Amino acid sequence: MTILNYDDGETFGRVQSVDTATVVVRVDDVETLRTLQVNRLVALQSSRAGQHLVGIIQKITRTAVEQKANALDLEEPEQATPELNLCRIALIGTLVGRLGQQSNVFRRTLESVPEIDANCFALEGERLTRFMQVISAVSGDGQRLSLGSYTLDPNAEAFLNGNKLFQRHALVVGSTGSGKSWTTARLLEQVAELASANAIVFDIHGEYGSMAGDGFQHFRIAGPADIEACRGLADGVLHLPYWLLTYDALVSMFVDRSDANAPNQAMLMSRSITEAKRQYLQQGKHDEVLANFTIDSPVPFEIADVLRRLEALNTEMVAGSRGDKQGDFHGKLSRLIQRLESKTTDRRLGFLFPSDQATLNYGWLDNLVATLLGGRSAKGGTGGVKVIDFSEVPSDILPLIVGLVARLAFSVQQWLPSGDRHPIALFCDEAHLYIPQEVTSGAAENAIAIFERIAKEGRKYGTGLVVISQRPSEVNRTVVSQCSNLIAMRLTNGDDQSVVRRLLPDSLGGFSDLLPVLDTGEALVVGDAILLPTRIRISKPRNEPLSGTIDFWDKWSDGSSASDLTKAVESWRRQSVQK
Asked: Residue 462: is its pLDDT beyond 90?
């Protein structure tokens, strides 16, 4: 039996006009009009038997109807001005009373439109509760992913389709303090519970260090204090050696584009790196790789060998008609050599240039890939969600390093046979810092290129993106436009609201008006992963992220002493946080 078993006497209005996905309903009773609310659900009679169309109220109007005055009208006694009460409704789907062996099936499609004068009913009370339960039960294929409860009906749990959420990418946005990290933690906890979970979190500020459980494994990018200690994967410390960078990334890091000799420097870097990789492969007798490798192949090489080759060219003297003369590149590589030397000795970049020679072993990359991409089942029951703390990475090369890890994940997926790919999701926290709309450096340009490619092609290779940002207007538009799922928390900035508005379907454009008034922990959720686009109150995660929210007034008034500032100064000097 259908849950929408209305009698004709329960109608609050009748359809006056129909557009593609918008219906205008005439409401004759003023008292009934007063009970209607914007963003509430309604049900309309369909032109097909056994079906009801479901819609959201977008606008309610009460307008006086002007009448033409004539001589006879002037002599008539004064009468009340007639009014036209209208309700505009955006259609969002169809509730089918019986579909095969199933009853009460909600589908996000409009197989028909209502006829003129069709009845329109309010969806509230017990019917609303039963409808929300239908939505929750028919959440799509795969294990259900619970986000929270519907604002319309707190008793009905809101589920997402986990397959479609990660296949088609997701965007989580919200102003600072709106509950964005809370929502991300809620998603991560449920991912970590899956038997073969596989996800990487780019934790830019160390917020997700509190995520605990068998499904989590925590890493941090090596800092200055890890150079002599030689801590590695077993200690949760990641070294990302320079030879993992692409040629373009190396050029952006070492070559000053403003230098008049920049083209020559880039060309000679290419030759020197290629020769260094060839020498490494020859010494290791990796003949199969030697025959097919390129400059971007992840083959180790000694940076010292590259420096020696560049220095030789920079000081080269060749035979001339009147004796020795300076070579073609004599003195033109000095700035490049200085930049290389300064970078390799910069302790902040110890993760790129580790003193431990273990990263030059041919099998070292296999261990790194197995740890980061192997999934929970590959780690013997732990480490399905890998949280990588980038908080000690210098901001000027942060995009380069985050992009390096993303490229590592995507490249491995790309080169696996299609039947062997185990899907992986990349959670990009504070995405505006390394996937910016405005390109300000070569490092950002390299990161944008890889994330754009993942956004466009990731689904084919089992790589999903979850883009998280408090400033969606500053995130690369190509990446944002490829996100087919939107979880929008409170946004107060007009530019950010415009980004969300462009992502909403035309029939739901009015939803964006709610963005500045959403409560903390409340979100507008729209996309392929949810059957009903609506407001959802996000449930509290078991382990709250370390979002750093401090109660200023309470702290100032409780009489507590100041922090140990000497410890902070010492950490600043060491370039490493002292726990």
From this structure: yes
